[in-house]
């Protein structure tokens, strides 16, 4: 996915057209044929107007070829009376219009299918990129950016795709009407084109302005989302220290700026509509005058041409409006491409959970170094030259000062980071070569366990969807959580709130531990996963975890020395190394 920040309007448009065409494939060809057929049928309908008027009012229809075709048709059918000839032409006209309506129906359905499919493809691709992205990239992502891309920006891509197809359809319609106008009367048609093209060029700069406004909207929406999620995340702090007014002021300022831009944009759109309507009226008036006085065109032909030119203002207006809306929606596509581009580097293939057989065996770190990339290029921290072996089924304790590198070690062990130098092997096989299988084999309870905004039951089932209620209670018993859950009025069906905020920190940790136990993992990593529990409960839970059968390898990271009392071995980390 190539993306260059600050790409111009033309480059963004080219990429969108290329991506939509690549997605459309055969369906795109079908849509193209339907668009073309619709335009041709409309042309046939319009071309019939001049002969009908000539039949009605007498005289020539003003076009030699058209005159010959209608004369041939009347001879062939043997129709001589005015009503019969008019009925014939009306019949052909009605048939052409019915066929056109059916073709347009099929065209619109195909285009809608294409648009919806393209938007869903983009949504899925972002989701896949996120799931495959390297952990270093994911931890640096601004959540508001991702949410904005997945909701507002993707929605805007639907808008962009809609106006792109609308513009392309209108271009084909306009081209068909141009051909028809040229056929009816060359000089008059040329005159009308010159006037229409002049009006088109005059409106071109508005596209650039619409694009600039689109960029402002995309940024402002991200700022609003970010502000709101920050506010909600730190709500306790904000409310307890009366910081809401700052958040509200920022919110109001962003909204005010956005509304101002929006009003300016709508004014521009109304002005361009006014220009289109005025130009169409002027073109019509000039055509009648020039047709009668300069080119001496037959009245029937003049009326037919006027109708064709009037019909042209429909697609040309749609092109003008559509181009502006398209230019306005393009920055959203740029935002999606930019996110995908940022996630690309270091992405790992996703392995379906069912395809990956669990793995166990001796874990070996050999001279492993990993330094976190620092924004602004500051001093890198992480772990250095780490060498250790963890035998299967043992319980390893890790302690050390804050920032010593314990979580980085756990993340390396979980395969979230690839070592920058040195190797990590499991049973002699490099971890990087069996990540899917390895992640199927482990359960990791992090410092700040994540619970979904859902019931306790569904939070537990996430670890193992096949786990029945009795297995859930067994796991909850083991981590001393069944007591407080049974006391809740809704029991397992209690909703825990956003990130589990409706229950206590210790309760949250115990549900996260039960979820880990349900995975029946070969390796259980607990990174300060019991630090919110009272010492007695913590000791009881850790003792029980060590008696699990089959016994998993346990890696327990903790600050309190008592938490590591039952471990087979305790290592101390300092400055990213084993002390
Ligand atoms: N994503 C990151 N980007 C940049 N630096 C990071 C990142 N994660 C950790 N660090 C830095 O790496 C060092 C080790 O962090 P780590 O989280 O491994 O320490 P820790 O021993 O687990 O600390 P604590 O006991 O406070 O949880 C710290 O200096 C930390 O600031």
Main traits of this protein?
10 strands, 2 domains, binds adenosine-5'-triphosphate, elongated, 579 residues, four-stranded antiparallel beta sheet, ABC transporter transmembrane region fold, alpha/beta, six-stranded mixed beta sheet, Rossmann fold, 9% strand
Shape: elongated
Q: Give the number of DSSP strands.
A: 10
CATH superfamily of the largest domain: ABC transporter type 1, transmembrane domain
- Taking pLDDT < 50 over at least 5 consecutive residues as the criterion, the unreliable ranges are none
In the CATH scheme, the class of the largest domain would be: Mainly Alpha
Written description of the protein model:
By secondary structure, the chain is of the alpha/beta class. It is built from 17 helices and ten strands. It folds into two domains: 333 residues, ABC transporter transmembrane region fold (Up-down Bundle); 219 residues, Rossmann fold (3-Layer(aba) Sandwich), CATH 3.40.50. Strands 6-7-8-3-9-10 form a six-stranded mixed sheet, sandwiched between helices. A four-stranded antiparallel sheet has the order 2-1-4-5, with helices on one face. Helix 1 packs parallel to helix 6, helix 6 packs antiparallel against helix 10 and helix 7 packs antiparallel against helix 9. The radius of gyration is 35 Å and the shape is elongated. The relative contact order is 0.09. The model has no long low-confidence stretch (mean pLDDT 84). The structure holds adenosine-5'-triphosphate. Adenosine-5'-triphosphate binds next to helix 11. This is ABC transporter ATP-binding protein. InterPro entries: AAA+_ATPase, ABC1_TM_dom, ABC1_TM_sf, ABC_transporter-like_ATP-bd, ABC_transporter-like_CS, P-loop_NTPase, Type_1_exporter. One of its GO terms (molecular function) is ATP binding.
